[in-house]
Amino acid sequence: MQRNEREDAGPVPPQRRRTPRLPRRPRRPAFLAAIALVLASGALAPAGASAQAKAPARKAAKPAFGLDDVAREAAKLALERFRDPAGEVPRWLTEISYDQWRDIRFRPEQALWRDARLPFQVQFFHPGLFYDRTVRVNVVDAEGVHVVPFSPSQFDYGRNEFGSMVPQDLGFAGIRLHYPIKRRDYYDEVIVFLGASYFRAVGRDLVYGLSARGVAVDTATPSGEEFPYFREYWLERPRRVAKSAVIYALLDSRRLTGAFRFEVTPGVETLVAVESRLFFREAIGKLGIAPLTSMFFHGENTLLHFEDFRPEVHDSDGLLLHSSTGEWLWRPLDNRERLQVSAFDLPDPKGFGLVQRDRDFDHYQDLEARQDLRPSAWVEPSGPWGRGRIELVEIPTDEDINDNVVAYWVPEQPAVPAAPMTHGYTIRWMRDDQARPPGGRATSTHIERVEDAFRFVVDFVGDELAALPPETVLQGVVTIGAGTGEDGELVEQRVEKNPVSGGFRLVFRVRPKRRDALPLRAFLQQGPGALTETWSYLLTP
After folding, report:
1. CB atoms near residue 45 (< 10 Å)
2. On the CB side of 404, how many CA atoms lie within 13 Å of its CA?
3. Smallest Cα–Cα separation from 369: which of 306, 302, 309, 421?
4. pLDDT for residue 88 is more than 50
5. Rounded to whole angstroms, how far apart are CA atoms 225 and 216?
6. Dihedrals phi, psi of 363, to nearest 5 degrees
7. Rg, C-alpha atoms of the chain
8. From its phi and psi, is residue 434 left (phi > 0), alpha (psi between -120 and 50) or beta?
9. 387 within 8 A of 284, measured Cβ to Cβ
10. Largest CA distance in the chain
11. CATH 2.60.40.10: does it fit domain 441-539?
12. What stretch(es) of the chain map to CATH 2.70.98.10?
């Protein structure tokens, strides 16, 4: 089986403050030619506009609104200089406390489409605290495109005394979609769009955990990360029998714009089908497609010690990859002592995601956070993406309130003004899926220091492994670094049946020969055939 992992194990230098410089002007002729193709395509009116054709006998119906409309708006916006809307929210609102912001609640009776008794309803978030930008929200229906007006009367300000000070035309900070996912008489939150280009969703019987983003720009680079934001949304009015809701979004930032279409289908697994079209004002050094953001504070494999009554604290415990060669790779997450970026070659990925495999409440003991119920997010491209790599960023943290894990796909194709990009994919917000991967999977990774070496205990489970009798002899294939023996020494190795899980346990000991980060890989096989996914780890002595 081909092993296609490549590690860039060196730490990334810390972000520094730099003297701002004027951006270089893009090559206008090529850029304008690329944008002109978008503006000229199709016959639909620009996003937000209402156009109608003349017919000899009767008034023609208004054209349907779609992603092409938003893409034309994004393409036109890319020709203009970026205007940062920061500051449109009164400063005093951004200085309120977290408890004050949480005490501002949208009134459910004001929900969009509530009186129409449609299968979906929409509620809105109030600006303030971290949310210093407002977003424009529109409804698309048979009559055209209509702005959803903001009013302070839509919100209950609780114990706050500043409700009368809020501007009447302030605007919303974000949106959340509700659907009766558990029972017919109650509309649960199923997806939230709030802050920059962040959004997060849940499947039935799960609670909010990790987030997704529209795009990532220069994550974990010395120059610092740029955070594009959704500045405008269009909500397609659903039919009475609709099982899905469609949301369009316009993305903007200093170096790029974008048009997005989200089709949300709630269920046991909530599916979010995403289509994106990106336009670049300037070249971008590192562009992250379908980024996922999560939290890992400590777990069974963490060597750092934290004073915490909870045995484990994380929203996701591993990165799962499915390559175009058919290989499945599992990388347990960790809270490291310094910023760590790992890269995995993954052309035309079949899928990748941040996964919460450990569902045992006893491993968390958190009655409030219920991390045993946090969703996994699995990204499935809807077509070929070309050459590229997955990057996993692990950021040190000493609190569980920080999202310190990011994963995204980086295209080999450069992000330049003359070449707009299009990507399609579906994000599955799910609990468990025995088909991912279909073979044996690593369910736990324990590590201990043994003098000058490290002992690893990795448990693999799966239906095929459980069907093997206890006396079955399996081989553990362990690779240290480049596999030449120069990076480290394999001191001990054995595979034994685990009668508790029904799977098999791989135990091995590694003695590093260098102080650099050391990539490790392992899987179980019987004869020439691999029975499990590839377990991957980055040991940092």
Report:
1. 18
2. 23
3. 309
4. yes
5. 8
6. -85, -10
7. 25
8. alpha
9. no
10. 89
11. yes
12. 91-430
How far is it, in rounded angstroms, from Cα 492 to Cα 197? 47
- pLDDT interval class at 12 (50, 70, 90): very low
Residue-wise pLDDT tens digits, 417-466: 999 999 999 999 999 888 899 999 999 999 999 989 999 999 999 999 99
Residue ranges of the chain that CATH labels 2.60.40.10:
441-539
Q: b/e map of 327-355 (b: 16 or more CB within 10 Å)?
A: bbbbbbbbbbeebbbbebebbebbbbbbb
**Burial grade of 1 (CB within 10 A; 0-12, 13-18, 19 or more):** middle
Residue 388 has pLDDT above 60, yes or no: yes
Strand, helix or coil for residue 225:
coil
Both structure tokens of 184? 């017919």
Task: Please give, one letter per residue, the 3-state secondary structure of 117-173.
Answer: CCCCEEEEECCECCECCCEEEEEEECCEEEECCCCHHHEECCCCCCHHHCCCCCCEC
Q: 62: phi > 0 → left, psi -120 to 50 → alpha, else beta; which?
A: beta
Percent of the chain surpassing pLDDT 90: 83
Per-residue pLDDT, 63: 55
Give the end-to-end CA distance of the chain in Å, rounded to a whole number: 29
CA distance 114 to 146: 17
Please count the other Cβ atoms lying within 10 Å of the Cβ belonging to residue 285: 11
Amino acid at site 238: P
Residue 77's nearest CA partner among 282, 280, 257 is: 257
3-state secondary structure 449-504: EECCEEEEEEEEECHHHHCCCCCCCCEEEEEECCCCCCCEEEEEEEEEECCCCCCE
- Say if residue 24 is exposed, middle or buried (CB neighbours under 10 Å; 0-12, 13-18, 19+): exposed
Residue 515 is which amino acid? R
Given this model, what pLDDT does residue 24 score?
35
Place of tokens 């590690």: 7
List 475's β-bridge partners, or say none: 525
pLDDT score recorded for residue 317 = 97
pLDDT at 508 over 90: yes
Q: Which amino acid is present at 387?
A: R
The DSSP string of 380-425 is EESS---SEEEEEEE---SSTTS--EEEEEEESS-B-TT--EEEEE
φ and ψ at residue 442, rounded to 5 degrees: -85, 120
* Cα-based distances in Å from 205 to 4, 30, 242: 36, 50, 21
Fold of 91-430: Beta-galactosidase; Chain A, domain 5 (2.70.98)
